[in-house]
Structures are given as structure tokens and as C-alpha cells.
Write a structure and sequence with these properties.
The chain has a single domain, classed as Muramoyl-pentapeptide Carboxypeptidase, domain 2, CATH 3.30.1380. Helix content is about 30%, strand content about 15%. It contains five helices and eight strands, in the order αβαββαβαββαββ. Strands 2, 4, 5, 6, 7 and 8 form a six-stranded mixed β-sheet that branches. A two-stranded antiparallel ribbon has the order 1-3. Strand 5 and strand 6 form a beta hairpin. The protein is globular, with a radius of gyration of 18 Å. The termini are far apart.
Length: about 210
């Protein structure tokens, strides 16, 4: 009887791990990894590597999505979950050097939308991601789905509880939120695109340049 109970307990643990229910414990020394090496299916649209962002300046020297290894693995789980619905992820921002945080703060001095660099952002820890949904079934290739606003919209329409958007946009926002929460991410109340990984506070703030991360 004892042997059977132990076997069942092990099976339950494996099932919980596979469904993302077990916390993977944030290691403060966990390395940053490129999401493309973890899951190349995830699309990139790194806005701060272009001038197509609210600063109208190129802030990153390269378009890379770097995340703590644990966080990247969880994001890959989300991609696999969404693929079952013919959907996928498109990422706008991941790790952000703290020095860049100061530049954003100079332009938007409002911690509802830009974290005070003195305290640091979850992006500066490699534990936050900005992203949206794409439809993988479109004949012309992955098509970005309608959301209540575009990326980095600093209005109430971007808030997670905003109800004034179209039915389709609200449905897509809910699909994204549910998929992320299922794998241990928490959404920011003022930005539908922003999600923090569970255990983010255990990671230290970083200011490592992109070209120094292999």
C-alpha cells in the first residue's frame, strides 16, 4: 500500500510539473538566455531596437529577447499551449538594461507605465515580457490579432480592466492573459501586454549590455 501511494504521489508531481503548476524556484544567479534558442517559434518585434516606440529612438543595438532561463522555459510552454488553438506569441520587449530604464523614465515620469529606475523594473531583472497574440492560421503568415490598444499606449484603454474595446479585442486580451497566467505569469494592471514571471523579486537588477550576453 505504501509503495502504491508513493508511486501515485510521483505521478501527480510529474503531471503538475508538466502542466506548469510546480514553481521552478527563481535562482538569483540564473543566466539570461535568448528566447530563440529555447523556442524559435516565438516571433520577435523588439520595438526598442527600432524607432517604432514611444521615444522615437533606437535604444537597443540588436533585436533580442533575453530572459532568465526559467522564465524563457515558461514562455515556451505558453507558446505550445497556444499552438493547440492555432495561435502564437509575438514579443515586443524582454530584458532591458537598467541604463535604458533611466532613458525611458526621463520621457515618461509616471510609474504606472514606466518603472522608476531607482527601484528598477522587472524587465531589468530579465523576469518580465511584453507581448501579444498572433494567428498562425492566416494564409499570408502569422497575423497580429486585434487588442484594445497598440503597444506602449499610456492611456486607460490599455488597462487590463478596460471594457470599451471591441468584442474581438477583449476576447484576445483574455486569451492571452489566461494562457500566461496558466504558466505562472502575472499581468500588470495598466498594460495588457506586460507580464511578470512568478518569483521575479528573487532576481537581481542588471545593467549588462546586450552585446556582452552570449
Amino acid at each position: 500500500m505504501r509503495s502504491t501511494s508513493l508511486t501515485l504521489a510521483k505521478i501527480a508531481l510529474v503531471v503538475s510539473f508538466l502542466c506548469g503548476c510546480v514553481s521552478l524556484g527563481a535562482d538569483p544567479n540564473e543566466r539570461l538566455v535568448d528566447i530563440r534558442t529555447v523556442d524559435p517559434r516565438i516571433l520577435l518585434d523588439i520595438r526598442y531596437a527600432t524607432a517604432d516606440n514611444f521615444t522615437h529612438r533606437v535604444l537597443y543595438p540588436t533585436a533580442r529577447c533575453l530572459l532568465r532561463e526559467n522564465v524563457a522555459r515558461r514562455l515556451a510552454w505558453v507558446e505550445s499551449d497556444l499552438a493547440l488553438q492555432g495561435l502564437g506569441l509575438k514579443v515586443f520587449d524582454c530584458y532591458r538594461p537598467r541604463s535604458i530604464q533611466y532613458k525611458l523614465w526621463e520621457i515618461v515620469h509616471d510609474d504606472r507605465y514606466v518603472a522608476d529606475p531607482k527601484k528598477g523594473s522587472r524587465h531589468n531583472r530579465g523576469a518580465a515580457v511584453d507581448l501579444t497574440l498572433v494567428d498562425l492560421r492566416a494564409a499570408s503568415g502569422p497575423r497580429e490579432l486585434e487588442m484594445p490598444t497598440g503597444f506602449d499606449d499610456f492611456t486607460e484603454a490599455a488597462h487590463r480592466d478596460y471594457r470599451g474595446a471591441s468584442t474581438e479585442a477583449l476576447m484576445h486580451r483574455r486569451i492571452l492573459q489566461d494562457a500566461m497566467e496558466r504558466r505562472g505569469f502575472t499581468g500588470l494592471s495598466t498594460e495588457w501586454w506586460h507580464f511578470d514571471a512568478k518569483g521575479w523579486e528573487r532576481y537581481p537588477l542588471l545593467d549588462i549590455p546586450f552585446d556582452a550576453i552570449r
